[in-house]
Amino acid sequence: MASDKIGAVMVVGGGISGMQSALDLADSGYKVYLVEKQPSIGGTMAQLDKTFPTNDCAMCIMAPKLVATGRHHNIDLITNAEVAIVDGQAGNFSVTVKQKAFRVDPTKCTGCGSCAQKCPIETTNEYDENTKVRKAIYVRYPQAVPLVYSIDPDRCIGCGICSEECKAKAVDYDQKEKVLEIKVGSIIVSPGFDEFNARLKTEYGYGVYKNVVTSIEFERILSATGPYMGTVLRPSDGDIPEKVAFIQCVGSRDEHCGNEYCSSVCCMYSTKEAIIAKEHGGNIKPSIFYMDMRAFGKEFDEYYNRAQNEYGIRYVRSRVAAVSEDPRTNNLKIRFVENGEPKEEEFNMVVLAVGLRPPADNENLSRIMKFKLNEDGFAQTGVFTPVETSRPGVFVSGAFSAPKDIPMTVAEASGAAAKAGTEVATARNTLVTKKEYPKETNVEGQEPRIGVFVCHCGINIGGVVNVPEVMEYAKSLPNVVVSEQNLYTCSQDTQEKIKEKIKEHKLNRVVVASCTPRTHEPLFQNTIREAGLNAYLFEMANIRDQCSWIHMHEPKAATKKAKDLVRMAVAKSRLLEPLESLTLNVNQSALVVGGGVSGMTAALELAKQGFKVHLVEREKQLGGNALKLHFLPSGDDPVAFVKQLDKQVTSNPNITVYMNAKIKNIDGYVGNFKTTLESGEQMEHGAVILAIGGEEYKPVGEYLYGKNKNVMTLLEFKDKLSKGEAKGNEYVFIQCVGSREDKHPNCSRVCCTGTMSAAKKIKEKDPNAKVWVLYRDIRTYGFREKYYKEASQAGVKFVRFEDKEKPKVEEKAGKLEVSVKDEDTGKNIEMKPDYLVLAAGTRPQEDAGKLAPMCKVPQTKEGFFLEAHMKLRPVDFATEGIYLAGLAHGPKFLDESIAQALAASARAVTVLSKKTLEAEGIVASIDETLCDGCGMCVPVCEYKALEVVADKKDPKKKIVEVNVGLCKGCGACVGTCPAGALTQKGYKDTQIYAMIDAALEGDKPKQEVKE
Amino acid sequence: MNSEAVHAGSHGGDGGSEHFEPKILVFCCNWCSYAGADLAGVSRLQMPPYFRTIRVMCSARVDPEFVIRAFEKGADGVLVAGCHPADCHYIGGNYRTRRRMALMKMLIQQFGFDPDRLRLEWVSAGEGEKFQKTIIEFTNTVKEMGPTPYKGGV
Hints:
The structure holds two protein chains of two kinds. Chain A is of the alpha/beta class. Chain A is 25% helix and 24% strand. Chain A is globular, with a radius of gyration of 31 Å. The two termini of chain A are 52 Å apart. Chain B has one domain (23-143): Rossmann fold (3-Layer(aba) Sandwich), CATH 3.40.50.960. Chain B has five helices and four strands. A four-stranded parallel beta sheet of chain B has the order 2-1-3-4, sandwiched between helices. In chain B, helix 2 crosses helix 5.
């Protein structure tokens, strides 16, 4: 398509946010340049040990994304680089990028690490927050992408040992800085954040007392790859600490250090670190000193409750005044005030929960890219434009626009990808490349002819394992027609050699004995495809990572093991079959369920990218809950925004709106859904976005709600207030009504800020009005802290109560009377309000329970939709092609809903932008002659890919059908089948038996290969 | 911590024919345990060389029959390693593995095997150390038990 726009996007910052944006865009037909300051991508998340609230290992869940980003043929990684100049305008930018010298040739470096082992220079390791050492030639962390070593010019003494050691001749001392000119249509900025410099809070003694560490240092201490290999030890003497204190809000909510905002994540990460520390060592007793516990996210309160009840973590509500050290023991004395009394307590170790700051180069970035920063130095965004900077065509995501957690960062990253994609949608598919392969050779019925390639990996394998012996041994195995050895099997020239050997010897199976298939299998599969072999006719023997490297001092045993591993791989390869990646057609239109702000935003973004959208709304007007908000604390007008959005949606020719419409049925799988409305109307589409919203809880029977007309919910009150109908002298707000209770244990996230907004409004109209807020914790996270402060300054009175002692409400002679015990003073307070406002929680929309089984998607205990992964897939479902956004996912603010809706649209575009999809080759398949339709396998499948259906040949008989569009190829079902009818392609029973037998039976005489 | 010391002395090293060299088969899931085993390699963590690994996509692919086959072919020990509970790449595959392996332990006991010859362990992609520790411990356990009681034939 002709366009003056450039179908490429630059993403600046390669943390979890930048990677997500890059992957979404590259999967949607755009070329991506990912620019990262560090020599490798991964950002802060790569440093984390575990993540809340699931305690997932950070590296485990992130590594697949790292590898996918590094390997994507439409993502160019430009690491060790910074943006210098941005010229042009939205749709057509010209960017100058300066890339520092690695002093190692990335095309030659195999990442084997021999250089670093021999490098004589040790220096502190930034990745481990200086708790460990690294060499002058180094990678940031073992799983780094790209896996290219670089020389630290400030540390290198130029001794030349690394250069001698490098068998690949990759070290290049004279490499110069590169200046790159890159043309892109839009830019996403995601440079992340810096930690608050704890030295500025001198009263806590960081940098003076050895046993005072920051939370990110503690994260490394907890990590199995950290300084103490996962054992919690204190730095001064390596002792296991017993009492560990966590001090919250270090550099947050603190006007003395200039950061008045809340950093949003520290309450949760400290809770997590305390839990993990406790798990690591039974005697560790963590205490967390906090002001308000801000566990506002999805299922965060349950995590907080578990921390207290199951792990016995002690929470002390107090701001710590000072820390001092006992010089004899290096223990630390903490001074604080609890229940009005000054106290002092001794701890073995102190962890400072440091807040999030804008990155150090924020002003530089803002100047080069010409966008505005807010008063705190973060990128300025708007409530209705959460991923847009002030410069058109430049978008932002992650912690650079406000402190936030990983799920919200990932959602914004996809949301920014949607916006960046829309900007250049007319140039989609103009700059991306599609790999073409020769026609596949038919190997059916052929006797296996196996080629084995054994790798020296420089000296990594060859230094321990006798590679020539293994190569010779392979020749003796049945069906092996050629066996070779290579210095580096992964190098480009070896790929050519493998292709030649395939042709020369008519090979129909290839085995490579080298490193791990997790990183290198795709490379070799690609090579054999280029030689006309099906990718699945390949097998790997891992004789480096899982042999030479772990048996370094036992060369004979390692060589024996390498032979065994090759024999096992050859045994399996003999039985390998070509697998077809099934091609599924994609209907390039979408269904969006729900016409609130989320649904409308998602629909509009898809329509702008050129896709047809069916938008189904059950009410008679679009707008949903946003219409009930009336006003926002920022001063923005949500009703005007909804009206304008409504107009854009209804006037867009790509969107068909169905009003008063309800879904009767949704059938099908990714690319091919079919939906029927209750009216009987039908539509076909390739993706589904569930944005059905939520609703405010109606607390009937609580606090006289429903009995006294002046007791109302927050939204009901805001309606009255905005109409000027709520007039009185005294107002009481009660927080957490229907939230953080037994049946609804989680926080509803928005009520505290909503209350600030209403309280401020009352005070603006009548400064003499008495306003009380009865609360448990004030959770005005991020920049919303400002509204809390403004309300306080306007004279709103805050009274804290405990869950066990809820406020009492009575009606006496038609007048409301409220009494509550103030937990901070212990005194009872009596109030006689004209209005009692209940900050009622958010509940899932009633249709959620009907849609979930139709779409085969799960729900949380509370009935919200449950995403594929709480951390890294916040808007996806495990079922491909179905996405979610907004309140349907859980309580959240308007800007967060918009970001999620944009994200859902970006995720949907990764499907809709393609005419066909390739389904996994490794899937389950069923032998219909053996299956008796018992259905035992059906509940085992987590992806609902199995179904009992009537046999087409014999309708009286039942059989199980595998939906390959849904199957993810885990193989869990295979083991349950009592009839042996299920198999997993690529991991068939016979193939695994062959490996087991080969592993245990030892050598077998060679069979002759039939020509 | 150098692991050399941990297992030095507990095996015969090269050429020690008088020592029992157990045959141990390890099943690793692709996403966590195999990655953890790779990390052990990247970190150069040393461990006894008597185990052979078979990679499967999910630990739930480990059919109870694979375990039986391994013992039938003379394995002295079988280790199944998967993602930690709640970490499974395939949502809940490891819960099925847990149930199946609990049953398998009971089953092999019926056949006269010490149930400790079969072990289930959770190893995450970040736990190279745990993989090493597991291999060292399991190798020692199997060595103490001696060669498999199975002598062939059904």
